[in-house]
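In line with agreed milestones, the collection of sequences with tokenised folds has grown. A representative record is reproduced below.
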Amino acid sequence: MNPAEASSRFAFDAIGTPWQIETEAPLDQDVRQRILDRAERFDATYSRFRPDSLVSRIASAPEGGRFVFPDDSLALFDVYDRLYAATDGAVDPLVGRDLELLGYDAAYTLRPAPEAVRAEHARDRPDWTADAVRDGPCVLTLRPVVIDVGAVGKGYLVDLLSAVLDGAGHTGFVVDASGDLLHRGRRPTRVGLENPFAARQVIGVAEVRDRALCASGVNRRSWGDGLHHVLDARTAVPADRVVATWVVAERAACADGLATALFFTGADRLAQSFDFTCVRVRSDGRAEISPDFPGELFG
């Protein structure tokens, strides 16, 4: 949606990031409140940054237990199942404890734990296929595990809020969660692709229509030499060969997860399980673009 076409803009904060929803028809107060309530319910379930969330209760259960997630977890965890398989375990929602030990914890200490502590955790690192048994929306754990849905969760919430707009009869809109977005409407929306080496510049542009576009970059959440939020769950080592990715897919959850998966796995391998197009920038500055990506790279 082009700015001139938007009749309504609704800005708010959710899951720790700014959001903006642009719609062709104005949003009434009831729809706005439903959007805020939906985002709050999502945060109360999946946030590892708030002590009252379901995820935090799972992390603090000394002997594990049986935990009931909302029904929306079925589609969310299904994406993780597929990503885990397609990346040989590099994308794993049980990576939360490794992120905490690197300093990306609930208190945002941004100070890595001592090497000995990290090494002890590495000797028995939890695994999505072994340490979280799922039965529908129920998850059974045998020990404390820290679930982190950061690779997929923001995109999935984009999908959920888009469903609220669909249900309210809106046919033209953009749901934008600080760069992860979903578009509906007649004319595409143009999105600049931020240069991962110079944030005030763009290296290209995408045109998105009735699809989702999600991005991931190591420059957005970094706090030290080589320390950032994109970890290989098999080793807990931050990615160092890729610095930025953009993915266009039908749903934002898949686009979001694939934007992370591309840090560890090639597009050809992922295309065996997912339908998407992408741009990927390596740490040496080389850029790769899918032949059918709806946009272009400059230069």
